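Replying to the earlier thread about multi-chain prediction with a worked example.

Input:
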Amino acid sequence: MFIITCPFCGERDQSEFSAGGEAHIVRPKQPTELSDDEWADFLFMRKNIKGIQFERWNHAHGCRKWFNVVRDTSNDKIYAVYKMGEKPPSN
Amino acid sequence: MKNNYSIFSLLKNSLSYHENWQQAWRDPEPKKEYEAVIVGGGGHGLATAFYLAKKHNMKNIAVVEKGWIGGGNTGRNTTIIRSNYLWDASAGLYDHALKLWENLSQEINYNVMFSQRGVMNLAHNLQDVRDLKRRTHANRLNGIDAVWLSTEEVKKFCPIINTSPDIRYPVLGGTLQRRAGTARHDAVAWGYARGADAMGVDIIQNCEVKGIKRINDAVEGLETTKGFIKTKKIGVVAAGHSSVIANMAGIRLPLESKPLQALVSEPVKPIIDTVVMSNAVHAYVSQSDKGELVIGAGTDAYVSYTQRGSHDVVEGTLKAILELYPIFSRMKMLRQWGGIVDICPDASPIISKTSIKGLYFNCGWGTGGFKATPGSGDLFAHTIANDEPHALNAAFNINRFVSGDLVDEHGAAAVAH
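Result:
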């Protein structure tokens, strides 16, 4: 449990949000040309990082907007929050 | 050679005030090379080492554990054992484990306090009733004992449950597996550790894996905090940290790691002599031999490696517990903790070879791995020793995420996730 700063609503309790998993997994541009291995990679395989992870969150019990969070999964500390479509912070 | 534990050794040691018990397992330094190394000294890893030594005669092996034996999820779970899973593949896997449990204390000469007190799964809505009845039929076709209980029968079997139709999620019935039950969780780890050690397995604690050395597509050894260990076979049984090891080897797994919580109450006199689980309202409870209520909550719905879990998850569980068991309303909770569980998209485990030769993974047990400990170890040992899966774990290969042949057990998992 921790506080997330929604880029639209400000600081809110984590329980207002729902986690959307690993960010920046790009949907295949040519789905018909994908092999089964590539589909498995897109659908199921995750980095599941212990440490700094880029992830998607949704303010489900608030503005209902999606955005990205940079969080250390080993201590739940949040380093950055940025909107969908924005470039992830580099450091 | 280890002395057997028996009534006579207990008497003998009582005469010397229990000060001369033999050390249960050695504390060796790692050798330069092993035939196989198991990463993770929890129940599953130690069982794997035990069966590798016992059934496959691989005795020059080691278990490396970053913490201490019994300090991870083996010592953090709610100790429930059952095999009432829906699909044939799961039924085979979990009932294999349950059969091993039934003779485990004798097999490893260590009392794991296996108690077949029955596990009851409650239905709280019409869909629950349909799903659980279907599961009961599926279980019986697979030779697994299961019966459907009406609301009145639920009340008779466990009188403290509030079966009033007026509660928010009324009890509409339930299933009962009488062969199911509980066991003393850390005794399982200690017993397997002692048994494996007696056959020559080196159990190396406080030894964290830092890297996996590969030459082309085959493993060569492990970098650890106690130096490099050469080996051609690595079996990873690292539970919530499986992805961390996979990332070292450069492969990806279909896992997400999340904190799962449990809590225990102050000890009280016997009040509940079975295990009751409610998937729909996310609450399950049993009573330990010490008298504590053992309560399991759900997972936090985001990736995290913090072994604690959120307050709102516990609150949700306790609300459901109090609605179902009003008698517990004045109980005090003593301790709360979290463990990191590795969850597969289909809520079934992976016991499998990988694309790298000599690298095997046993992971993805999610919220319900403890019950499978002996079976998981036995089948993983078979997979490592023969470089081929056993018939019982063939369906739990990692390629099912490519082929689409998933084993969807979300309905039979202890808690929805």
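The interface with chain B takes residues 1, 14-15, 18-19, 21, 36-37, 39-41, 43-50, 53, 55, 73-76 of chain A (CB under 8 Å).

Feel free to reuse this layout for your own posts.
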